[in-house]
Structure formats: structure tokens, C-alpha cells
Amino acid sequence: MSSIDHNATVQIARPIPPPIIRPSTGPWLGPPVRLRAALRATWALVGIACGGVLTVATVLKPDARGYGTHEALGMEPCGFVFMAGLPCPTCGMTTSFAYLMHGQPLASLKAQPAGFLLCIVTVVLMVASLIAAMRGEIVTINWERVGAVRLSLTVGFVLVGGWAIKLAMGFATGAYPLR
Predict the structure, then answer these.
(1) Is the peptide bond before 105 cis (omega within 30 degrees of 0)?
(2) Residue 158: how many CB atoms within 10 A of its CB?
(3) pLDDT in tens, 92-133
(4) Closest C-alpha to 115, from 175, 53, 168
(5) Which of 2, 131, 141, 160 is most open to solvent, judged by the fewest CB atoms within 10 Å of its CB?
């Protein structure tokens, strides 16, 4: 007589599940998606707005000081410059755009490094949004991968870094503090 253990458990081999691809580890860009008419119109407006900003920058004469070009648009001079004798974190943005649109990238970088990068982003956004509006599809961005914190830190780093470079160049050349 053989003894059988009726209380024994039987383990069945299960297939190993495929690895889970989390959005934070997937590709940065996804497949193109079709756009409805309203979104096509929205992207067209984004492209036109970017084009408007770039057109204004092209028409403006860059201020040789490296900041203050916005005053030609009827805006007030920077209060931070007036109070502190130093440029604010965004001083030189309009000047930087104007220099780059006039084909002077080194002067644009000197006026405001963050403005130089922002102008390039504006050109790319204009082209991409107009293409999306015309073709009716747009490549998706994996915002989970990009992440709000990462995006915010990058933008902050670019702004503060551009300001630090502008200040360092100004102190090195004796241009700051302003008198």
C-alpha cells in the first residue's frame, strides 16, 4: 500500500510575465496622433503667435547695452536694473531674440544665454506647430517621462544659469554694477 498525502500542494509553473514598461522609462516621443479640426486650428494659432514674436524680434533694433530693447515697444525700463544696478534674470531676453533674428548668434548669447535658447525653441515650436496644423497629426510627447519636476528644474536652471552667465560676464568686463 502506498501512502498518498492528500494535503500536499501542487505548484504549477506559471509563465513569467513580460516586463512592465513604465511611462517614466519608455521613449521620449510616441507615435503620431491625428488631430481634430479644433486642435489643428489651435496648433495653427500657436505657430502664428510664435511667428509674430519672431517677426517683432526681427523688426526691433537690438539695444547695444545688451538689455532694454523692449523699451522700443513702449514698455518701461527694468525696475530691477534701476534699484539694484544689476540686470534681472530676464534682462536681455528681447535683445537676445532681436540679435538672433538679425543673424548675430554670439551677440544674442552675450545679451542673454537663456534668451538665445528660448528663441531657438520658439523657432522650432513655430515650425512644428505649423506642420502639425497642415498635416493634421502631431508626434506625442511622453509627459510622464519628461516629468513636471524635471521640466521645471530644467527651465529654472536655464533661466538662473543664463542670468549667472550674464552677471559673470558683466562683472568680468566691468559693465556691472550699472551706475
Answers:
(1) no
(2) 15
(3) 999 999 999 999 999 999 999 999 999 999 999 999 999 999
(4) 53
(5) 2
